[in-house]
Structure formats: C-alpha cells, structure tokens
Amino acid sequence: MLDEHMFECQRDYPRVVPTVRELTAVRAEPRDDAERVTEALPGEPLTVEETRDGWARVRTAYDYPGWVRGDALGGEPDPAWLRRGADDPLDHARTLLGAPYLWGGMTPAGIDCSGLVHMSFRATGRLVPRDADQQEEAGTAVSEPELRRGDLVSYGDTSGADHVAFWLGEGRILHATQRDGVDRVVEEEEPVELRRRRRATFRL
Known about the structure:
Blueprint: H1 4-12, E1 24-27, E2 36-40, E3 46-52, E4 55-60, E5 65-69, H2 89-94, E6 106-107, E7 110-111, H3 113-122, H4 132-138, E8 140-141, E9 152-157, E10 160-169, E11 172-179, E12 182-189, H5 192-195, E13 198-203
Antiparallel strand pairs: 1-2, 3-4, 4-5, 6-7, 8-13, 9-10, 9-13, 10-11, 11-12
C-alpha cells in the first residue's frame, strides 16, 4: 500500500541525483553574491533537495548542503568520480603547491585549506569531510610526539577549528593559506601565529 506521507515528502523534496556540466560554485544562499561554501565538480553526484527561482539546493556526496544555479545541472554522475589516482594524500597535496588560495575552492585553479585536505584524500579514493572543524571531529587524536608525516593539525579558538594543515615533520606544515604576502598552497615552518592557535593534532 502506498505511504501517502512518503509520497508527499518526495513531492515536496525531489531526490534527483544529477551532476554539474562544469566546475560550479556552491553557495550558502540562492544568490550569485552569496558566500561560496564549496565547489561541485563535473561527474560528482549531487542530490537536489529543493528548487527555487532558478536555483537548486543540493547536497554533495560528502553531505555538504548549498545552492547552485539550476542551469548548471546536467548529465549523469560519473560512476568513477571517486576513482583512486594517488596512494598518499600528502603526495597529492604536494602536486598543488603554488595553487592560489580561494575560499570554498576545490581545484588547482583555487583551493582553501580544508579543500586541500578533502581533495588530497579524495585523490586516494577516500571521501572525508569538507570543512576544518568537521575534519577535526572525524579524526583520531594523536599526541604531538606521535605525529607522523601526513597527519593533520587544526587551528582556531574555543569556538572551533577554522584552519587545517598537513604535518610534514620537523616543525613544517603544508597548507593553503591567505595572509600578508602569502596567498597560495605552501610548505613552510609552522608560523608562530598559527602555533599559538593550535587546537588539535589528528589522523584521518
């Protein structure tokens, strides 16, 4: 027997699973000037939860919500969208050295700190959370003496993590950063101002 309540829910919130035709900004609100919170890559599956005034509220495969223009959607997801192309997340991250910093970015054309971590793990066939605070929460805590190459360090205050970096060892990190004189993915000694804001050391 048909569950009428279920039918109503499906009618109100269509669960269509498409992808985007090209790299597309995912925004916090259905406006072109709204904050870019992440990016959708062609072939990556998206669930459409709502449509409004030419926009679609989507949820990514890594459970991240946001809005894209409806005309950006098209085609079927690529079954191999999470194809493994690297063995080590840190090795993949190193291929992005010099990529410009972009809030919400996910590609060599522009990437942010947590996007660098997310895409580096995705390159190994692993889907991890998108934002620094989510990555910290999902990780397994390790003490500083136990840190290994490729572990992660988060930074922020008591309200949560707002930055994340790969640990390289011997006091060095690799991260996407935007500060005076630096606006890209870099490998460097852990800056003093970040060291003071260190929240956690962890492993994904």
